[in-house]
Amino acid sequence: MNAKSLSIAAEVALALAALALALQVDDPLLAGAREALRFAIYAVATAGVAWSWLGRRQFRLIPWAVVLLASACLQLSTEQRRRATLAAPPETLRLLGRHFIVGYRDRDEAERLVAQGGVGGIFVTARNVRGGDLADEIAHLQELRRRAGQAPLIVAADQEGGPVSRLSPPLPQAPALASLAALPSAMRRAAVHRQGAEMGRELARLGVTVDFAPVVDLAVAHRDARGALHTRISQRALSDDPQIVSEMARAFVEGLDAAGVRATAKHFPGLGRVDEDTHFFRAEIDAAQSELERRDLEPFQELLAHTDAWLMAGHVVAKAYDPEWPASQSKILIGGLVRRQWGFDGVIVTDDLAMGAVSRYDPCAGVVASLNAGVDLLLVSFDGAQFYPLMDCLLRAKDRGALDMEALARSARRLDRLSASAKP
């Protein structure tokens, strides 16, 4: 192959790489770099078109033109979904929007969604502090809700202590709850309750109403999933003993509750046995039902029976119950086990829908399945831009009759109770 042929091959390969990246740029895992990547793709493709045109290299012009056209069409599609969501009938937007908790980077965008009732809640992290005082921002958003005659906004945070403390700073870094597990029982309960109460007061001062904690997964053999860059359950799980987990989790929930902040038991049905990181990959649990009920599920059931904690459904497939759907989308696990068998009529929220375990496997079918299964709230925390395509999925599902309106009505009653219990 001569130098000219090599040059053409290299240029075509570069164009194909740019096209592949353009097709993946909306992947939630690329959220932080999305705008920079879009700019880079447009810049490279435009330069390729100009270079080929000016050099009269018509053959080389084709792949760059394809990249440029594909990028523009994908961007247009994203914007169309956003506009379609915002232009939905107000009653439909409020009906479906109340089932979303969304993280955000753009305050103006958040204000519009909050005022229209397009979301039921927001998820805040340290990134939301950069633009000013977070307490003032939350108060402003709640005032927009009040003026619009909407229910109070759910304000969620992920503040466990230890490695997952999304609001530290500005809040002080608390130790991981697992560090208290070795204390004698009475001292342990007191220490965990105290940490929950202190954390609750700090969160309440900002205006946070629900904390996505505590972790109720068992620390099975203190192992981590392969490639677990984010899950790190061995550092976050409280113990491998279900009774200790139940005791500590209940004390923490009661501490948060004393400060007026709801707790969330996560990640049902447990990630301790999982061999893959659900932030990136589909994951399964192979254990038998009897083993899961004897160990992994016990702390969840105990906590839901004796506290007002929410339940966070994880994206793991518990094959003994439902070999097809992850827990967050499973009618067998959510509607059957938790709702009917356990009798839990409190709030259930999904884990982040931007996680690879669900975002790469027909997310449209997934959000419909979640609501139909008995989930109340759909969490889009890491990449808030994913709200628009997911809401578009629900709008289309409603139009074609794919949403279980009875399940949606039961969920609405649970959310109404939650709103009625919120502080004015």
Average of the residue pLDDT scores: 86
Low-confidence parts:
none
The helix-and-strand class reads: alpha/beta
- Total number of beta strands: 12
Coarse shape: globular
Structural Rg: 23 Å
Structure description:
By secondary structure, this protein is an alpha/beta fold. It folds into two domains: 3-83, no CATH class; 89-421, TIM Barrel. Helices cover 52% and strands 9% of the residues. The protein has helices at 3-24, 34-54, 58-86, 90-97, 107-116, 134-147, 185-206, 233-236, 242-258, 289-296, 298-306, 331-341, 356-359, 363-373, 387-399, 405-421; strands at residues 100-103, 121-123, 154-157, 159-161, 164-165, 210-211, 264-268, 283-285, 310-313, 316-318, 348-350, 378-380. The radius of gyration is 23 Å and the shape is globular. The mean pLDDT is 86.
Note the topology:
Blueprint: H1 3-24, H2 34-54, H3 58-86, H4 90-97, E1 100-103, H5 107-116, E2 121-123, H6 134-147, E3 154-157, E4 159-161, E5 164-165, H7 185-206, E6 210-211, H8 233-236, H9 242-258, E7 264-268, E8 283-285, H10 289-296, H11 298-306, E9 310-313, E10 316-318, H12 331-341, E11 348-350, H13 356-359, H14 363-373, E12 378-380, H15 387-399, H16 405-421
Parallel strand pairs: 1-2, 1-12, 2-3, 3-6, 7-9, 8-10, 9-11
Antiparallel strand pairs: 4-5
Helix pairs in contact: 1-2, 1-3, 2-3, 3-15, 5-6, 7-9, 9-11, 12-14, 14-15
